[in-house]
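4.2 Preliminary Data

To establish feasibility before requesting continued support, the project team ran the inverse folding procedure on a target of 303 residues. The structure was first converted into the token representation described in Section 3, and no sequence information of any kind was made available to the design step. The complete token record follows.
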């Protein structure tokens, strides 16, 4: 199979601003740096490695990109012990066994070459992205690649470099339309240089105040403007505390949603104390936030 190039079959994206506008319409507010990184990944046909703290929107960026491009999203969630059979392909042993029994009933003998064909090949996310035959190249999200083992990174190198997967029994499959590949990492461990060299790179920051307010406004339209701004400010200050898990956008949205359900229009210290479980995920973090507010009348005076 031949590789038709990175943009074959995909809607033309004019520039980073055009991509940012499409992502906006897909429900994802992106800053200039991330828009540029995603745009260059599309134009150059290279995978993009997005790193950042948990909760900054790395996974959401890939999902929104698929929506913005009108492309199918294929997701590979990484975890410790992830194998080639779960990520690339595996053989359908049950169908192979049935084929052997059927041949025996006919007094026929099957050779290995009869059993290891595309008929018995089961696609997993990476091979599915390579063999995709749709009119638009898919977006392949390799999520939290840092959770996988070192050996898994080696399995990715051929695919990331050549948009190809080799099945020893059959041969090499090369993408007709190079998939748009986004890898995410929370930096729970360092990735190998060989993998990094095959990717463009962008560090995704927490959104600044105005963009955070805009995200919250879109996610919780019933919340008052005062509530949106005060909660956004407080989340930013809470991130300055020594916490096990810094609150990300998902936690901020959950918290504001809870406050809106409770009819809170203007944040008070009591409101925070009653809903702190929406913002923190461990008892130590809860105590750290509550302790930082001890003796203070209003949470916006934190720090």
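Position-by-position output of the design step:
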């Amino acid at each position: 199979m031949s590789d038709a190039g990175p943009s074959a079959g995909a809607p033309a994206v004019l520039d980073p601003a055009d991509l940012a506008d499409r992502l906006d319409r897909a429900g994802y507010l992106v800053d200039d740096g991330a828009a540029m990184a995603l745009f260059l990944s599309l134009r150059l046909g290279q995978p993009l490695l997005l790193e950042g703290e948990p909760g900054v929107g790395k996974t959401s960026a890939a999902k929104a990109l698929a929506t913005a491009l009108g492309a199918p999203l294929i997701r590979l969630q990484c975890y410790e012990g992830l194998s080639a059979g779960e990520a690339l392909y595996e053989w359908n042993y049950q169908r192979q066994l049935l084929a052997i029994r059927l041949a025996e009933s006919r007094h026929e003998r099957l050779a290995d070459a009869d059993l290891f064909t595309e008929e018995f090949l089961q696609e997993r996310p990476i091979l599915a992205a390579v063999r995709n035959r749709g009119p638009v190249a898919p977006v392949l999200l390799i999520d939290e690649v840092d959770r996988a083992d070192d050996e898994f990174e080696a399995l990715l190198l051929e695919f990331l470099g050549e948009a190809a997967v080799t099945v020893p029994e059959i041969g090499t499959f090369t993408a007709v339309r190079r998939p748009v590949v986004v890898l995410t990492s929370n930096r729970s461990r360092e990735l190998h240089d060989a993998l990094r060299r095959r990717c463009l790179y962008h560090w995704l920051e927490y959104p600044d105040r105005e963009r955070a307010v805009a995200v919250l406004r879109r996610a919780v339209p019933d919340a008052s403007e005062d509530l949106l701004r005060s909660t956004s400010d407080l989340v930013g200050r809470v991130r300055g505390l020594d916490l096990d898990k810094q609150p990300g956008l998902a936690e901020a949205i959950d918290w504001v949603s809870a406050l809106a359900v409770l009819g809170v229009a203007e944040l008070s210290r009591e409101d925070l104390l009653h809903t702190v479980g929406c913002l923190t995920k461990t008892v130590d973090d809860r105590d750290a936030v509550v302790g930082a507010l001890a003796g203070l009348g209003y949470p916006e005076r934190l720090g």
